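Input record (one chain):
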Amino acid sequence: MRVLAVVPARGGSAGVPLKNLALVGGVPLVTRAVRACRRAELIDEVVVSTDHDGIAETAREAGALVVERPAELSGATASSESALLHALDTLGEDPEVVVLVQCTSAFIDPADLSAAVRKVLDGEADSVVSGLPTHEFLWTAGGAGVNHDPAFRPRRQDREPEFRENGAFYVMRTAGLREHGHRFFGSVAVQPVPAQHGIEIDNPEDLELVRALAPFVDAPEPIDVDAVITDFDGVHTDDRAYIDSEGREMVLVSRSDGMGVSLLRRSGVKVLVMSTEQNPVVAARARKLGVPVLQGLADKRTVLRDWLTIEGLDPARVAYVGNDVNDLGPMSEVGWPVATPDAHPRVRAAARVVLTRPGGDGAVRELCDRVVAARPEPAAAAARTRPQFGPVAIGDVRVGDGEPVYVIGEIGINHNGDVELARRLIDVAAEAGCQAVKFQKRTPAICVPEEQKGQIRQTPWGEMTYLEYKERTEFGRAEYSQIAEHCRERGLHWFASPWDVPSVAFLEDMGVLVHKVASASVSDHELLRALAATGKPLILSTGMSTLSEIDAAVEILGTERLIMMHATSTYPLPPEEANLRTITTLKERYGVPVGYSGHERGLQISLAAVTLGAVCVERHITLDRTMWGSDHAASLEPSGLEHLVRDIRIIEQAMGDGVKRVFPGEEAPKARLRRVTV
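The corresponding structure, as predicted from the sequence alone:
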């Protein structure tokens, strides 16, 4: 051992009780000192000399050896040199250089420590002291100049700096310490330290000052946790509420928080929102984020403890972010208590990390980014494979990467208002091997534009207005009850695309397992909010939509139970508009399973979508493409649907696992044909 660092840390302190265990930036002062030493390149070993069991335990957890200091060397009058010499005697060996590091300096740069050690190792000095450059003029109490002539005051830029000893660290040759008994001997040099590192903690005011500085001085580090729990008011919001004339409450949130939470969940980190309030605003925001929420909590600490037990989480690997005194309980339960910068002073003092962004202005995103930064990078081989997203459970079926493709027969309005025709199409889907059929549900009086309601249309039932036609072809409760029963008998899921809010309520009453958002409804935020409020899995079709429009929709719907469908809303779809690589774009941007909703003629494009990772495929189906109606021409007839499902299952088998191997069928040709030369 060439260089040893010794950190004297006795339990007694006149100015701040148990000062060496006081938290700064959520980390005990003794831990901060040990970490600085361990990160210094030229320090080989770190020892903490203490008379206090709690300090000893904390020091060991930080990676230091512990030397028990006797009572006679632990009083207020005991010198730091006595602690150094006792530590050396206890270890039984003398390194070439010994470093005295004091916990009273919260901010010590490991690079400064190594620079000071280098000066001694290279023979530039026998002893080095940390010092703060200063151009201050000093006076005696009697008015005499100490370091200047009052009659001659040169400008600052004309004077060499002097150095104020700040007590952070001292480096010395061990032999010289042994010979002289104190830390200053031979050639003494100064290691300059920055002004923000120069504060010594001697009283409570100093401690509050360094705590306030910590968020700005400490370099942000990754936060390695398995779960993130957040308070709501003051964390997701700016702690203000807006009340409209009807008494409805609104809050301000940051859109960037949503993407941060999505990245967290995608990386495997559990997320939970906890709130003492029972407020629909909290529930609505949690739904958009796609995370669970616990509301109306009188005792957040107990609830958190129970949740950690249920989830099987190690509290030391959990972060909780809060802003007010009711967060102190849960913060004390986890290894990473986090506070917003405008939090109550007691909360900031208890925090291990104080964020730089306030609540409602990116605080959650900042925390998410630091947590994601600590997650392990994928191995090189894994990085070359397609990311896996999902799955999302629809009833008893899981839809996502690695699961069988979920094939949906889109009946839509191809039933032409005839429930018997709908039953026959359900049979077609079941016999082809689909897992689900989908319909469309409208309230015509709401969905038909006013200027179109009175337009005359020629229909199979004679001449009628467009509104009458839409009402004639719309199914009600009696028809959908028959559809639900027939789907149950045939082993199919059924659901629909609601085009208005009353239709959402109708489908909820019918007990559908999932809702579909039609491409035309991506910008209908009132409808999206109603769908998000159901808590059901959602399938979002993205035809005729820009990424910004999809972003806004996802912000409302959340991503926890979301499946996207790449689609191009051209009927029928020409190949040059299919743009199938968008499947990958949507997966990477939103981190959700992505399928394909096709309107082309033939099967090739849908099958190509499966090879690009589509987790579900939806195609319109019909008994005959020549039937009357707008969607029949771009639909699959029974034989086409049967071939589609058959070929999808073949592709699933053919995709394999990506591991190169010699298969059994290759062994005979290999033995017969392979020529080996050297």
